[in-house]
Amino acid sequence: MPVLTRSRVKLLRSAQLVAQDLVQHRVQQCQIIETSVDFDSLLQQALSEDAARAAQDDDDDADGWEVETREEEAAHSPADPAPTPTPAAEVRSSAFTAKRSASSPPPLSVSESSSTPPFRKKARRGKKNPEKKQSDARMERSRQGKEAKAAKKKAGASSLNHQPSRHALGKRTELDVVDTGCDHEPTLHVSKQGFIGRRQGVVEAFSTVEAYIEAGYERVSWDGSTTHGLAGFGKRVFGLMVGRPGEPTYMESVRRLATAITTAKDKMGFGNRQDRRGTFSTIAYGISYGGGQKRPGNLRHSAQNIRAMEELLANPDMQRQASYAKSMFATYFPDLYDEYVQTLESLHEDNPLLRPLFDGCAWPAVSVNFPPNSFSHIHTDAGNKANGLCPIFSLGDFDHTKGGHLVLPDLKLIIEFPAGCIIFIPSATLRHGNIPVRPGEFRTSWTLYAAGGLFRWAHYGFQTWATWSAKNSKNTEILDADKKAQGERWCRALEMFPTVDNLRARADR
């Protein structure tokens, strides 16, 4: 008899936690996300679908996961003969079907309990089931949901698509904005072509809050309960300080993730390589293009480090934070988010061997800065997308008023950065660093990012600029148009940072 397996319960629970974070996200003037998802109904719907599929064999699972469940062998006394094993059942869920590509991991094998679970009542033959009408109604809603999902898929939708609710769109117009006072474009360090940043030297700056204040920096106090935008360049919002959601289990999830990152560090090997940004151990993992790569590909690591990172990326607490960041990204920076989605999907179509971090992640790569005191010197991550926004996740146990601040020298700001919060910045073009925490305290961080080379590769038809220009060497009109576009690309990139008026106009539609 098909049952709700452990893997499926874990999937439903992980999605429920993410939704709870979005519902409970309350800020002083900016309530970001609200959802009306009823997970009890989804759970009952999933159970009804299992019962229906157990009675018929359909093959409509080309794009979904198939998880085979097997009967566990139970010990029985000699006087009590063992029951006949139940055949393996296919477990599917229309509410949560993960898209499987050629590079996706193989199906998982989990065990099916030999006894009927307490929450699943078996109807006796020959007797009417009082819940039949309700079950039929749920199955009809499920059928309609499948049709809607198929229509979206036909129209090009994917797990990366995110449509903020009207309530969320309305709340973002109340965003509290921190005016950085920077209204000139040269503040951001961008390359000539406009795809990546311009490399800046690493600077070992001050190590205390007091030293920065004496040097003329402005201190931004933040307790992590509110959400603020960083505005400049004609009142455009180019950064976001995302407050913690009010859901009570969120901080426990943050603490578990900090422990998981510490455990992952113990399983890895880092050799004698010293990172240019600081003295902490770090690892970059995922899809990238640059640094001598001939084409986009998965960053190479030892088998030991791959196992540890795959285990960390499968952690539901890490995926929970990443999903929260993705929702914020799509809500406040919709144009930039759409560019990310379209580019990543086209890259995966061009090369199915590219492996995403996990299903639905809006960024192709992750960088983990390991504890106990992960702080970086002043630098830029010049290889990232020039106007791309990288969410930085702060974790640990420390006094955020004494250390762990985010330092932005180009803006002359130091921002308090409590554990459990997220800050979005254009890390390729805006210099940034951290103030170390005090001795005896614990801090770690991680960030999601996208290499600018990936967008350049896709822009020139999935080839290098040199190859593209060689193919069009005799077509001066195309080359001249490209040269002109290079000068305009950064201006168009800045326009993807919304103004508060843009956010209000979108909410009023």
Automatic annotation (TrEMBL):
<feature type="compositionally biased region" description="Basic and acidic residues">
    <location>
        <begin position="128"/>
        <end position="150"/>
    </location>
</feature>
<feature type="compositionally biased region" description="Low complexity">
    <location>
        <begin position="109"/>
        <end position="118"/>
    </location>
</feature>
<protein>
    <submittedName>
        <fullName>Uncharacterized protein</fullName>
    </submittedName>
</protein>
<feature type="compositionally biased region" description="Acidic residues">
    <location>
        <begin position="57"/>
        <end position="71"/>
    </location>
</feature>
<feature type="region of interest" description="Disordered">
    <location>
        <begin position="49"/>
        <end position="173"/>
    </location>
</feature>
